[in-house]
Amino acid sequence: MEPETTSKVCAVPAPTVLPHIPAPQRVAPADARELSKLFLQRLETVEEGTPEYQYVRNTLIEMNLSLVRYVARRFSSRRESMEDVLQVGTIGLIKAIDRYDPSRDVEFTTLAVPYIQGEIKRFFRDTTWSVRVPRRLQELRIDLARAREELEGQGSHEPSVAELADHLDMPEDEVSEGLVACNGYDSDSIDRPIQAGGGGKQQTGLVADLIGTEDPALALAEDIQALKPHLAKLDDRERTLLQLRFGAEMTQAEIGEELGLSQMHVSRLLTRACTTLRKGLLAEG
């Protein structure tokens, strides 16, 4: 049989016939990785927009949704809906599929995970900086700002709710609701000094001092707990290598000298151990 012609050179020839997968989302993560290689190679050879192209691409997306769930778990403590996070993460997965090049001989997960994580982080960055309020309150905020400016120009340094309501000819409770909504738009600088009580109003610190931050070691602690059962499955030599490399931060050459191994042998053993751990973590997705 003559090989198929293709406009791109792939590291491995694309299969002539792909296996039929009736339920791609139910494929185990380990099997999905192997099948994805075949489908990604095939995607390079079929014409975009054809029924076969859609089938291959959609199957790749469904088979790798476990990657999205795996990455999304890191953001489970956020207040946003996990369904929204998964949808955004799926966009990252699709981008990874569309931009993956089999000829570079790089594992698909190596490209996909950063894409998924990047889309989710971008989602949080773009949607959590302010409070969303109804349209009528957005418009009322503008009216209140104008009313306050006009009243202050007339000598009222801090207009009361009653004065604003009278000026705008609207109920006081509606003005109060609008003032509360303004807090969702007016950001306060975290570098603003905090003034102590009393006539002197001494500076006692900055607003930033009162804001808690996420412990940077929290994600590391979660990763270590997730790795523990997989580390237990490694043999003593593999665990020793990992401890020397990542615990003692020794170079491969130093490890080889310590254990009486060549640097190349140390490199192969470390790669094998890390691959085993990575597969174990991804299989949990």
Automatic annotation (TrEMBL):
InterPro entries named among the record's database cross-references: RNA_pol_sigma-70_dom, RNA_pol_sigma-B/F/G, RNA_pol_sigma70, RNA_pol_sigma70_r2, RNA_pol_sigma70_r3, RNA_pol_sigma70_r4, RNA_pol_sigma_r2, RNA_pol_sigma_r3/r4-like
Keyword DNA-binding found: yes
Domain of life: Bacteria
Keyword Transcription regulation assigned: yes
Protein name as annotated: SigB/SigF/SigG family RNA polymerase sigma factor
Domain called RNA polymerase sigma-70: residue spans: 84-97
Record key words, sorted: DNA-binding, Sigma factor, Transcription, Transcription regulation
